[in-house]
């Protein structure tokens, strides 16, 4: 997923479309949370002008992340739609508030951009549907347990338990 500026100028009238598969292992070292990564599909097209190239990307795949509660593997599919602009000429005019990337050297490489977009897509927490999976972290211990809001039982403070009967006596 790398093109020289000269190659891009040659494709200016024809246009550039691509549909490539990148080995997911290349993204494994990007973030320590990623336990596994499937092959990443990158589809897109490029709009090429004399001063800039705008890539319209669709990136999809599946990564495996640890469950925030139990630490078991949780598959997390992702699909990213992005539009990125690269300036081919440093002196090119562009809007001040526009997000653009300046091409360093003579090549436009999408690999670091794709890696950045995948890292940004990683959620802060994922949760496994199966909390009793083998190798999962314990869900209870001495004087504690993990409960959901549905399972939470309203426990009355023993010091206030006497007041519970107070209103029953008044109704009689």
From TrEMBL:
Domain of life: Bacteria
Pfam families registered for this protein in UniProt: YceD
InterPro entries according to UniProt: YceD
Name of the protein: DUF177 domain-containing protein
């Amino acid at each position: 997923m790398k093109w020289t500026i000269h190659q891009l100028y040659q494709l200016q009238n024809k246009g550039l479309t691509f549909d490539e598969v990148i080995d997911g292992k290349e993204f494994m070292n990007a973030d320590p949370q990623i336990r596994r990564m499937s092959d990443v599909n990158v589809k897109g097209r490029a709009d090429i002008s004399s001063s800039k190239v705008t890539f319209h990307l669709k990136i999809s795949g599946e990564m495996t992340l640890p469950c925030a509660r139990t630490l078991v593997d949780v598959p997390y599919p992702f699909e990213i739609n992005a539009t990125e602009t690269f300036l081919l000429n440093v002196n090119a005019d562009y809007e001040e508030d526009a997000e653009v990337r300046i091409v360093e050297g003579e090549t436009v490489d999408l690999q670091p951009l794709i890696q950045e977009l995948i890292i940004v897509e990683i959620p802060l927490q994922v949760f496994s549907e199966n909390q009793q999976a083998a190798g999962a972290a314990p869900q209870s211990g001495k004087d504690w347990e993990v409960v959901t809001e549905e399972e939470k039982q309203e426990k009355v403070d023993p010091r206030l338990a006497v007041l519970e009967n107070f209103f029953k006596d008044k109704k009689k």
